[in-house]
Amino acid sequence: MSHYLEFISLPAAFLTVLAVSMASAILFLFKKVPLSFVRYHIGIISLPPIVALCGVLSSNRSVMAGPWRFDPLSWLLALFVLTIGLIVQRYSVRYLFGDRFYRKYFTLLTLTTFADTLTWLSNDLRLLLACWGVTLLGLTWLIRLNKEWAAARKAAAFTGQQFLISWLILLAAVIWIAQAAGEWQLSLVLEKNNLAQLASWERTGMNLLLIVSMMIPAAQFPFQRWLLDSVVAPTPVSAVMHAGIVNAGGLMFTRFAPLISGEAVQMILVILSGFSILLGTGMMLVHVDYKRQLVGSTIAQMGFMLIQCALGAYIAAIIHALLHGLFKASLFLQAGSAIQYRETAAFKDRRFPYLWVIIGGMLGLAAGIGYWLASGGEGYPIISTLILAWSVLFAWSGLVAFGSGRIGRLAGLAILGGAAFMFKFIHIAIDSLLHETVLSGNQPPAPGLIWVLVILLGGSAIGFCLAPKRPSKVFTVLYLWLVYLGEPHKDAVESHPTYLSKSLSYRRSLR
Amino acid sequence: MTTTLAETLIWEKAVEELDLQDLVKAASSVIAPLGPIRQFAARSPWSGLEQETFEQIARQFKDLCDIELFPNESVLQSARNRGEIDGKFLDEGLQNWLGQHSFELPRTAVEPFCRAALMENPPPNDLITLPDVKRLANKLSGLKSHLKARPSVKPVCQRFEQIGGEWALKDLNRHMIKWCKLFLDESQAVWPMPNRENGFYQAWRQLASLDPALKLEARTQIKNLPNEADMALKAALSQLEISHSETREYLEAHLLALPGWAGMMLWRTEQQTKNRSLLMDYLAVRISMELVLLKPFLPLPKQRREEQELLEPFIAAWLHWGNLPINGWYQLPAAEQKARLNLAWQFDKMVRNRLWLEAWEKTYEKQLREKIVLVQQLAAEPKMPSIAQFVFCIDVRSEPFRRKLEQIGGFETFGAAGFFGLPIETCKLDHHHSHPSLPVMSKPQFKVMEYLPDFQYKSFHERLQTVHSLKGTFKTMKHNLLASLLLPEVSGPWLSMQTLARTFLPRGAGRTFRKLIDTWMMKPDVELSLDRTEHPETELPIGFSEDEKIQYAKQALKTIGLTDHFAPFVVICGHGSRSVNNPYAASIDCGACGGASSAFNARVLAELCNLPHVRLALKAEGILIPEDTVFAAAEHITTLDELHWVYLPKLSDQAEEALTRIQAVLPKVSEEANTERISKLPNLKTKIKHPKMEAQRLSEDWSEIRPEWGLAGNAAFIIGERSLTEACDLEGRVFLHNYNWIKDKNGALLAGIIAGPATVSQWINLQYYASSVAPHFYGSGNKATQTVTAGIGVMQGNGSDLLTGLPWQSVMQSDHTLYHAPIRLLVVIQAPTEYVERLLNQDPAFKQKVQNGWLRLASIDPEGNWKSWP
Questions:
Q1: Which long-range contacts (CB under 8 A, 24 or more apart) does A280-285 make?
Q2: pLDDT of residue A231
Q3: A98/B814 touch (CB, cutoff 8 Å), yes or no
Q4: Which residues partner with B111 through β-bridges?
Q5: Which helix or strand (DSSP H or E) is residue A13 part of?
Q6: Which residues face B634 on adjacent strands?
Q7: Mean confidence (pLDDT) of chain B
Q8: What is the pLDDT, as a whole number, of residue A456?
Q9: Residue A510's pLDDT is what?
Q10: Considering only CB atoms, which chain B residues are within 8 Å of A505?
Q11: Shortest Cα distance from A125 to chain B (angstroms)?
């Protein structure tokens, strides 16, 4: 009985606190409300993530509340999106203090993150579309807020156009799916007998539409431009993008998993995202603006997440989306710390610690094999194994093998151990939370796997081979292309922020 | 015959080359060198232009870059509303101006017009477009021939912009930004720009000829450019048809298009011998690129050389301010029409804003004078000998702290530039880089390093390396294709925890992290390499010789004005700031130490003054330091208003007593200084209950956009005895340097103060001024949309000029309200008039600054009379 009550009341409580928080965000728009209200606003919007946390901790099955679906996955996504939203808003309290659009930032940040949360809660496809549309609109608006700045205006216009295309494609896909299945409820659409009715070409078409519509927000090649231009937005806006917007693809595909899993057309995603990994990493290697390096890295990471989806590793994709979202949001928020002296450990004047590196290699191999055996063999785990083994060797070299003296090595070992423990812990926790809700265990297509391996190994090899011969023509051309592709659109750059001098003269009229 | 011809040719070539080099050097005076942001050094953007008046330069910049160097109307208006501008001075200024100019008009017509123009709103824009006004303007067009300024030389791409080709200038800037940041990168991009060791021009030529951002045609042209930068520059200039006489101005205009990147090139030119020709390279690249982009459109249609002033604004002005209706004009004789147009033309916005600014500055001077003179009459009480003496930096933030400290009683404070006259480069323990810890206009002559005995050093080194290797591994993993895919999953949870802690417990989390690092490092008490050791690897000698120690200690004490009546405990206080996640952290450190904490220099001086042989030698020079007197060093943390000891030697009994007393009162001093300072920072709360905790939060909060006000508000530099200002609240707006003219018979001390500390202060002042009046050009824009680039500076948004000056938030209280008052520095010297006259005669550079309006000068003579110098 008590369980029953709990499940009924938690969604209700959640929707209520969302509504109250939104009301607070709207209230803050009014000039009559003093600016200091923002502190109460932060208090209010910290309730939804708390309720979502309760949801994650208590629920282990799916509950429908009207058009909303509360299952472990949606609770987890809600917790993720709302937590980043809360962090970003709390950050903005001081960071944007004095900004002309101070109030609007909070309203829009709240609106965007809430709509995003609701997207992943929607069971009704129409609602999902509407919420997703509002999310994209909210983000575009956030980029555009400082509209007197021509560069921001241009970037927002382009982003808005891309988002609109993405949304329209999603609209088409959703209508098609709903028509074919005769049903708007996602959970019903995805039932086996409904899916079985679809002709194979229909499934391919739907898949194609979903893929394109999700590649745009994830800034995958050839749609990377909007994210590159969005560096123009204030830091908190760049951070909030990582709360379920750039990583929407992973979340959406996981939701639609039964429809898309095992489709051959996913190869397109694998190919383009594989290319995006190389492109994003390459941009990060050649570009020197800190925020541009960060968005380059996002492109690569999102490519990896989409590949995980395409290979059927949905839980891995969700874990990657969440942890990367938090990781990248944190890095953006501390982007002001990027000015540092080059005080990296001086490796060069030291002897190469062969023995230690060999131990690291063996450790990496052992970790890889252990992981491989534990995960049960073929498919996506091959890729994880490769990455894991390499990373262990890499981190071991940096932290332990090259560690200086006993103190350094011991500390390095401790750090490595801590990281490994946390990694394992998070994986087990999320895995046990989601394994019933999220489809898993599918065999990915072999060509996909091979392509990903080629991309990852080949990319590493290219980097390794070209880097020493720097001035070679091949390298120079590659370098220039990476610079070129990573540059923002020419209209989204302005040599001096002239809007500021104007804003000095507007002051009086604004009082 | 042939040999002579060849010789002549070579000779001619040499002359031309020399010429171009000189032209580039001369042109570079319009920009200021810009160093990396981590050693943010205050520089006046106009230090090379002081041979002309402020107004002349303002007009040039208006014409060339369309920026205003005088505060605009709304800034002035709100200053007036706050009572910071006295109408009386405005009137005086107007009368003065009218006295200097003559118009063939009755004073009764001129004065009301000018007064209305000064006081009232500008004419509405639609007046200019009225058909009546237009008709009249046509009618009077014959009179406008004399209303002409000499047109400035504009870059071809700027002229092209005026005929509808906006893209050219934008493209040119964009390309330059790209190449500059890739070339100048210091952040160790994993794949650095190929060929950059060959120099900027060479690297650019090799890369741009393959650049996919350019059309094939353009790439071929670049490929065929001359091998050498100077040849390329010369060729481009000649193809763009820039005459020899225009070249300098042409180069200047190009340098001013992106003054930040050009400034960084200039800085490198000055710093590194291998980069001597970098600025030439920059100009060669820029102008060659201009040529390549515009080649299909050359030659441009002839520019209308005489850009004529339109008459409509003047007619509108007379209509609006002079009550002269349109019809009235037709009844005027031609001479008067001309005179009236001339008046409206001459009494333009620039003049009006200048008069306003001068009135603002005079009002401030008056207020300062009243404060000081009033207090002079009060302060006459005899003083008790003090138990401790503190020497602070001249920095404006020292003043409130000194005031609070003195109010306790028993302490005496001094002001001197925070490098304490020590031309040193400092190197912290186990760091690879050293910092020139002195004003940016001078070069270091010695190097002082922190060091440890070997047995202590080894374990410290290992602990430090561990921190570095953690950061280093994170960075290399981030840049590795395979490892980067796992990194978020491994480090994400830890980073998130840190983010949550920093976000919701900014004060506690920041302090905890700082403590954790400190606990891990356990930095032992280091020693300084003060004794001269010859070190072949470095260019600078390490440490001082015995003689130099004496000389520098003596000079420092004399400059400070501390040569007798030593208290048993003397504390030399450097200052530094604390902030996190702030690319501008160095801008709130000590400006006299080139953007770093001055604690290091303070410690060096204190140690020097404690050396027995130095004391012995000083005694011979008449500076008697009692045996019981001990020098110590401390760091004044400006963000927290706290004093942290950095050097406490063995104390005498009396000094010990003084220290106990100081320790007892410091919390109270900090608390009071916090209360005064925190109330000036914008805050959501109207009343702050715990100023100390708020100050701690400001220094630790990673989301804080204004950790402190820094030197915003600075307005004056007082050179004189502390007794002059002791009893006044100078609101943290004044630099204070001790000076006693009686001890300076030959004026050498004063000359030194003017050449060093006063110039530093003037540069700081003009930097704040420039960042306030032209925030987009001389300020570094909005902090929230900045991105760090190349590890050396910041850009706005997707890319921009490398930004100079201070960010918008450092001078603005909010987007609507300015905090810093953009007025030029007022230097006040307490000395007899002859001293000031002698100074002006002996220091032509300073005289020029005063005469041309780059700072203002006043003096107080021994009788207490205030004199404003022209």
A1: A280/A224, A281/A459, A281/B479, A281/B481, A281/B484, A282/A478, A282/A482, A282/A486, A283/A482, A283/A485, A283/A486, A284/B190, A284/B478, A284/B479, A284/B484, A285/A463, A285/A482, A285/B189, A285/B190, A285/B191, A285/B479
A2: 94
A3: yes
A4: none
A5: helix A2-27
A6: B573, B645
A7: 90
A8: 92
A9: 33
A10: 72-74
A11: 31
Residue written as tokens 């003397």? B570
Spatial distance between the Cα atoms of B518 and A235, rounded to a whole number of angstroms:
29
What b/e readout covers B446-484, taking b as 16+ CB neighbours within 10 angstroms? bbbbbbbeeeeeeebbbbbbbbbbbebbbebbbbbbbbb
From the CA of A189, how many Å to the nearest CA of chain B? 33
Distance (Å, rounded) from C-alpha B59 to C-alpha B41?
A: 27
Q: Which string of DSSP letters, residue by residue, matches A212-268?
A: HHHHTTTT-TTSTHHHHHGGGS-HHHHHHTTTTTTTHHHHHHHHTHHHHTT-TTHHH
Residue of B nearest to A510 (CA): B816
* CA atoms of A217 and A140, how far apart (whole Å): 12
CB contact under 8 A, A467 and B191: yes
Cα-only R_g, chain A: 24
> Which pLDDT score is estimated for B793?
93
State whether residue B81 sits within 8 Å of chain A by CB.
no
> Is B184 in contact with B263 (CB distance < 8 Å)?
no
User: Quick check: B182 and A483 CB within 8 A?
Assistant: yes
Is the pLDDT at B607 greater than 90? The verdict is yes
Token pair 């590196």 is found at A357
Look up tokens 């001359």; give the residue: B226
H or E element at residue B425: strand B424-427
Partner B, chain A 481-500, Cβ-Cβ below 8 Å: 481, 483-484, 487-488, 490, 492-500
CB contact under 8 A, B481 and A343: no
Q: Is the ipTM of this complex over 0.85?
A: yes
What's the CA gap between A273 and A268, in Å, rounded?
A: 8
Residue A152: DSSP 8-state: H
Q: Cβ contacts (< 8 Å) between A327 and chain B: which residues? A: 487-488, 491-492, 495-496
Share of chain B above pLDDT 90, in %: 68
Asked if A127 contacts A69 with a C-beta cutoff of 8 angstroms, the reply is no
Backbone Cα Rg of chain B: 30
Which are the contacts of B236, defined by CB distance < 8 A and separation ≥ 6? B284, B287, B288, B290, B291
Q: What residues pair up with A262 in beta bridges, in sequence order?
A: none
Residue A295 in contact with partner chain B when CB distance is under 8 A: no
Does the pLDDT at position B305 exceed 80?
Answer: no
Q: What is the 8-class DSSP label of residue A344?
A: -
Instruction: Please tell me which of the candidates A418, A490, A501 has its beta carbon nearest to residue B171.
Output: A490
Predicted TM-score (pTM) of this structure:
0.94
Averaged pLDDT, groups of 10, chain A, 511 residues long:
57 95 97 94 97 88 87 94 97 95 96 96 95 97 93 95 97 93 88 82 92 95 94 96 94 91 86 95 93 96 94 92 97 88 53 81 86 76 88 87 82 91 92 85 78 91 74 88 94 91 59 29
Q: Sort B63 into a burial class: Cβ within 10 Å, 0-12 / 13-18 / 19+.
A: middle
Order the strands of the B446-451 sheet from edge to edge.
B435-437, B424-427, B446-451, B527-528
Q: Which two tokens stand for residue B117?
A: 């123009």
